[in-house]
UniProtKB/TrEMBL annotation, chains A, B:
GO MF annotations in UniProt: ATP binding; proline-tRNA ligase activity
Keywords: Aminoacyl-tRNA synthetase, ATP-binding, Ligase, Nucleotide-binding, Protein biosynthesis
Aminoacyl-transfer RNA synthetases class-II family profile domain sequence ranges: 38-318
Protein name: Proline--tRNA ligase
InterPro entries membership: aa-tRNA-synt_IIb, aa-tRNA-synth_II, aa-tRNA-synth_II/BPL/LPL, Anticodon-bd, Anticodon-bd_dom_sf, Pro-tRNA-ligase_IIa, Pro-tRNA_synthetase, ProRS_anticodon_short
Catalytic activity, reaction form: tRNA(Pro) + L-proline + ATP = L-prolyl-tRNA(Pro) + AMP + diphosphate
Entry EC no(s): 6.1.1.15
Main EC class the enzyme belongs to: ligase
Assigned GO CC terms: cytosol
Amino acid sequence: MRQSHLFTKTRKTAPKDEVAKNAQLLIRGGFIHKEMAGVYSYLPLGLRVLENIKRIVREEMSALGAQEIIMTALQRKELWETTSRWSDEVVDVWFKSQLRAGGEVGFGWSHEEPIADMMRSHVDSFRDLPIFVHQFQTKLRNELRAKSGIMRGREFVMNDMYSFCRGEEEHARFYDQTIEAYMRVFTRVGIGEDTFVTFASGGAFTKFSHEFQTVTETGEDVIYVHREKRLAINEEVLNDETLRELGVTREELQKVNTAEVGNIFNFGTQKSEDLGLVFKDEKGVSTPVWMGSYGIGVTRLMGLLVEKFSDEKGIVWPEEVAPLSVHLVSLAGGSSEVEKEAERVYELLAEHGIEVLFDDRDVRAGEKFADSDLIGIPLRLVVSEKSMAEGGVEMTTRANGASSLVPESNLIERIKKAGVRV
Amino acid sequence: MRQSHLFTKTRKTAPKDEVAKNAQLLIRGGFIHKEMAGVYSYLPLGLRVLENIKRIVREEMSALGAQEIIMTALQRKELWETTSRWSDEVVDVWFKSQLRAGGEVGFGWSHEEPIADMMRSHVDSFRDLPIFVHQFQTKLRNELRAKSGIMRGREFVMNDMYSFCRGEEEHARFYDQTIEAYMRVFTRVGIGEDTFVTFASGGAFTKFSHEFQTVTETGEDVIYVHREKRLAINEEVLNDETLRELGVTREELQKVNTAEVGNIFNFGTQKSEDLGLVFKDEKGVSTPVWMGSYGIGVTRLMGLLVEKFSDEKGIVWPEEVAPLSVHLVSLAGGSSEVEKEAERVYELLAEHGIEVLFDDRDVRAGEKFADSDLIGIPLRLVVSEKSMAEGGVEMTTRANGASSLVPESNLIERIKKAGVRV
């Protein structure tokens, strides 16, 4: 991708009303555009990051056997009344509107009800189960406050997965597999070390539910972490009984600020009973389905990565989610030799399937470097009169600033060694 | 994909309130689920078709130089007031809702205003133009009636592209290129012959706008077609002046029912003037941007394909959009020999990158064939005791029912010859 073709511009400052670091940097880098508080459009570079995160999640959900679908924003009032979740007193984040044809509709802040209802058309016998499905859905939530950039939006993308099982044991097995799959997602995007399966309050069917919490200074949540045992406890269930059960002491726990990046929840048979989602078991007896719900905040994850991986100069994208792998910067300064060499390197990288942002713009070197640091692509290659005189290309790692001159003959090998996604 | 794993079930009948053929067949085949009138979820097979159409559109938009973004559902009242399009009397398809934080928001039925507004942050000088962008957006429209299945929904996916140019000439060039690109899309999905660039009424800046209309019995529109000249005229501009200008006579035209699959519109500088989207020209003079808007109804296109390509048995997907390319049907009937052979063929196809739905279910042959016809995958392969005795696999083309026995050694070659997407 040629930077001269990319329509977005970097900015030296973020909008004054934007207080969250993630949104400030993403707006300045041209990744997103603020439509209103908590509502952001995704521009070409931002959409690439988003799609990379979705790709990782999709791969892990697919490995679990989950089938992808896409449900709707518009929601039927009658359906949500069945589970007593239509009322604004019960759910305070509904957007609702009048239908011109008469009646009211809601906008999907969650999809548990419609998916359980939909499954009634596809589940009949025990042979049809288990079923695992997931979707990447744009959720709409009428949040009172929206000051955390893309980490808590009024409109955001979520991966929500649902499981439909024949009983508690089958459910528990999938639930545990999902915990592992979710941790693989967090590891792949670069936050595995700092993300903890956190015990939180359960529901009617389980003592605990589980959250995935990632340590970050600006996090809205507080949890208590046991780093060695890789577990954590939410404030609401931090009591002697929980400590005893998990085999840890209060003194071993460290209090940290975190952001919730995922959660998983066991409905047992409650939702199915409410909505009439049943199957005939092996004896022909009509039995309610065990249901679980599993969420990963996709856009939130993107915001969190910016919060955690950035410095005073800009963003430092982890390799697997970076919008592109290499930022090729041409410092031609009028030299057609340098221009030609940069074009050659660009073609070489393309031939090897390496995703490159090619800064072929006619602007000052200082501006190019500042933009490159702000945009945060993992590896930077500079072609200049100096690098050519020294017989190669200057390669710099965004994360640590380490720089070296690489002869063109070694370039592809060195790029691949640097762990670039190909 | 194993059919035993696919959670969706086919149905013998469609919901009674569903009158549109496209939705009837898509629901029966397990492609979509009806949430309410004009609102449908996309299940695994349906999502695959949708993604195939998007892939084709994306390739053609990218070839035009358009950059992909994704805007938001939530819309700012103040922005739309600027162009006098907030009022329900002007735009009668708004969904609107109260913000808990105070004030009103709308839900995106169009994105012309927000994209022009967003471009103000990225356009400064003539050097920044032209810019072409597109998105696949879920549009929300408060339609009074919604009886055409996925062809006119309250919630639907659209590809909307926008052009921002320095003047009329640059705009006209891109506008013409887009007409060609859109026709390539329609040709690739199989409706090129029946789709006509149709003259419709223009706006302040042009005499005509252009619609892409596809001949179909159940179409809501009526146009007048000149098949040889590959042009058509919308009823509203069918007059002597238009006929003279296009060099055709009324007698040469054929009146047909059509569905609109795309439209393109020239705003001139009107929208930019309203919203303050200007650039400094080569003399440093502040000049409004020329803007164009270009839409393809993605879900509508999917519905139209079903309307046009189906028979009494079910859907007949065109190759490029089919959910999978081959339907492999195992008629084992308890024979482990046949089962093994079918598994072997399944692996063979996978090795060659062919997308297969493998009917490995333990159900009657009649049910398998009925489902296969309903789902409408272009090529069917049957492995049975009979086919094995005859030394091969039975291959049937869904479109014409032509059937032949293919030795396994020739299978891949024959499949590729049949024009399968690999």
